[in-house]
Amino acid sequence: MKKGIMRPGHVQIRVLDLDEAIKHYVDLLGLIETDRDAQGRVYLKGWTEVDKFSVVLREADTAGMDFMGFKCISEDVVNARREELQAFGCEVENIPEGELSGCGRRVRFTAPSGHAFELFATKEQPGKWGVGEKNPEAWPRGIKGMQAQRFDHCLLYGTNLDKTLDLFRDVLGFDLAEQVVTPDGSRVAQFLTASMKAHDVAFIDHPEPGKFHHASFFLETWESVLRAADLISMTDTSIDIGPTRHGLTHGSTIYFFDPSGNRNEVFCGGDYHYPDHPPVTWDVDQLGKAIFYHDRVLNERFLSVLT
């Protein structure tokens, strides 16, 4: 947390049918609805998250991601990073307090990859859903579906990976935890972390900027991932691949799609990262094994289906 950024704070996802999306994210994934606003947006959170929301659903004509936000330790950090973002050359937009329900002011910018990100420090904190912060039980009664614990990260496809790494490392204080490189040393994938997690955001090189690959949610155990797979079949939800293990980060995973075609992941486990750890490197000819450790080959959907 060299630059005062703690963790992913939220992601706003565009969906084609809001009612169908709510069924998916609440009944299947197990997120908790916490609010709706005058724009018609729906606010959701994982049950272990203390902030009011981590996922915002917005009905639109096209699917995809509007923006991803990172929570900072203080408003002073937001101010300092805003100045550094401008010095780096990013166009910065100030979003007023309350534009997202229960969230303080945000600073939005576009990365060289073409994706919109924002920084904030203040958000209402109702606490963990169903268990509270004092003498908490092990888990809440009444939770639905996969019982997703938290929004964990996004994988994004876009351009200018080198400059995007410069931005996240030098301005925002992220570490490069893992990478995939070509024989000439060029990076085609980079996994970045502001914490001890294997990654808080990841990028894969793609000729078109600003594309959304998936939003990922944390589950507790491998058994939870297997149960998620059962629920995917029980609800006839469109599946991408899994259950399987990653080589990158070593998490155990399954991928599937929401009714609008946005990809979701639920996973458990995975590596940890400290600032003195050198980046883990995979050769590009081992990409199949890096992504899907058991099959050792990439399916076509994983590479080409983006929103």
TrEMBL record:
SUPFAM superfamilies named among the record's database cross-references: Glyoxalase/Bleomycin resistance protein/Dihydroxybiphenyl dioxygenase
Cofactor(s) listed in the protein's UniProt record: Fe(2+)
Chemical reaction(s) catalysed: catechol + O2 = (2Z,4E)-2-hydroxy-6-oxohexa-2,4-dienoate + H(+)
Key words of the record: Aromatic hydrocarbons catabolism, Dioxygenase, Iron, Metal-binding, Oxidoreductase, Repeat
Database matches in Pfam families: Diox-like_N, Glyoxalase
Domain VOC: 7-122, 150-269
EC number: 1.13.11.2
Keyword set includes Iron: yes
PROSITE patterns recorded: EXTRADIOL_DIOXYGENAS (PS00082), VOC (PS51819)
Family annotation (Gene3D superfamilies): 2,3-Dihydroxybiphenyl 1,2-Dioxygenase, domain 1
Record keyword GTP-binding present: no
InterPro entries linked: Catechol_2-3_dOase (IPR017624), Glyas_Bleomycin-R_OHBP_Dase (IPR029068), Glyas_Fos-R_dOase_dom (IPR004360), GlyoxalaseI/FosfomycinResist (IPR050383), VOC_core (IPR037523), Xdiol_ring_cleave_dOase_1/2 (IPR000486), XylE-like_N (IPR054560)
Parts forming coiled coils: none
GO molecular function, one term: ferrous iron binding
Family label: Belongs to the extradiol ring-cleavage dioxygenase family.
PANTHER family (alphabetical): GLYOXALASE FAMILY PROTEIN
Subunit structure: Homotetramer.
Entry protein name: Metapyrocatechase
Species: Marinobacterium lacunae
